[in-house]
Design brief:
Structural class: mainly alpha
Number of helices: 21
Strand content: under 5%
CATH topology of the largest domain: DNA Cyclobutane Dipyrimidine Photolyase, subunit A, domain 3
CATH superfamily of the largest domain: DNA Cyclobutane Dipyrimidine Photolyase, subunit A, domain 3
Order of helices and strands: HHEHEHHHHHHHHHHHHHHHHHH
Shape: globular
Bound molecules: flavin-adenine dinucleotide
CATH class of the largest domain: Mainly Alpha
Distance between the termini: 53 Å
CATH architecture of the largest domain: Orthogonal Bundle
Radius of gyration: 24 Å
Amino acid sequence: MELREELRARGGELVVRVGEVPDVLEELWKGTGFKNLWSHEETGNFRTFRRDKEVKSWSEGRGVEWQEIPQTGVVRGLKSRDGWSSLWKRRMAQPLTGTPERIKPASGVDSGHLPEPREVGLEETTKVNAQKGGTKLAWETMQSFLLERGVGYRKEMSSPLTGETSCSRLSPYLAWGNISVREVFQSTRDRVMDVRCAKEEGRPLDKRWAQSLSSFEGRLRWHCHFMQKFEDEPEIEFENMNRAYDGLRENEFRTDRFEAWCRGETGYPMVDACMRALHQTGWINFRMRAMLVSFASYHLWLHWRQTAVFLARHFLDYEPGIHFSQFQMQSGVTGINTLRIYSPAKQVADQDPDGVFLRRFCPELEGVPKVYLAEPHRMPGVLQHKVGCQIGKDYPRPIVMHREAYALARQRMGEIRKRPEVRAESFKVQERHGSRRRARRRSR
Ligand SMILES: Cc1cc2nc3c(=O)[nH]c(=O)nc-3n(C[C@H](O)[C@H](O)[C@H](O)COP(=O)(O)OP(=O)(O)OC[C@H]3O[C@@H](n4cnc5c(N)ncnc54)[C@H](O)[C@@H]3O)c2cc1C
């Protein structure tokens, strides 16, 4: 809606069509005979990759010149990861393209109506507290982060409580193209310079800014680093990045476990609160995403493919390149990352010791004393009765016991990681996708 208004203010028009892309292009082409097709360059799912191949062959058949414009630091057709970081920096430093003052509308083309979600096959959303879209909001969100909210970013990003305001919250805007990673990078650079000047000139400024901005800049590079993996090997939407892990979880999928995880009813409050938060908002911070996946992949021993698809549908910021690469990393099937199995109870102690976040999203735990909040099933029966939270009735029993599930997962992962074929494959994965910075640190 905002884009339509912005275009109209410049004399242009947003034309909307719903359908298979080659059919829509054919209809528009017959009406106008256009000769050039411009689109953004996308690192998308297999489905959109297939669509792009169809568009390519349609364009060639009609003599239309199709140009895709890169939007991020992802390099198409990259031969080797060596030197990628410099290419990324060069991309980020390129000047931004200005917004045109006037736009000529296509004559004789009906603008079409903006479809309701159900017209494009989407269900009514459960996300009552989702961020709203649009470029104006994207800019406001970025400014409030760079000038105010982001001061404690470095320390506060890991808690779902403080992360809600201390993280930038730019991910949906980046994923949907309301703002580009280059715009965010350049604004961050300006702010870094501001902070440096303030220090040199002795102006009062919170000392935490320098470190917080540096952590944030690093993550903007990660955005493209992870997407580049997917661009280079789109098969990781379906296949293990390290094929020597094939067979590890494939035949042990338990639907009851999967469904309890999806509903946020595992009996572990931190896991359940995060999942329910996602249902309502479509966002959760990085550490809690990692914990959700670690719980599903290690404690419940679920294959990452089904859990990844489920979360992709719930993340407002779903970005295939980041999503599948991160999923594989947090599930331990890349062979190049440190094994991280999170304890949901420890995450409560570290990230929400007073249980504010937990009680917000699991209201049935309202009366549970703080000492039992992380593992309410440990409450004595009398106390459960007294506080009105009976385990198995008001709040679920744990679907697995942490200690045993954790030990078993560690043992299984430890065994497979030692195998020579896994190590050989891991070496290839590092060559193809690994961060060169980390490799340099290791070799030093
Ligand atoms: C299993 C799993 C799945 C994920 N799926 C997605 C996804 O589909 N889309 C998505 O945008 N992010 C994804 N992330 C990465 C990260 O959790 C989110 O980018 C972040 O939480 C978004 O909130 P923010 O914009 O406030 O982040 P901030 O912390 O403010 O970071 C700023 C930006 O940097 C980038 N970024 C931050 N952390 C990472 C990271 N670890 N890897 C890559 N880029 C990062 C994002 O573009 C983010 O918007 C996933 C992480 C995990 C563990």
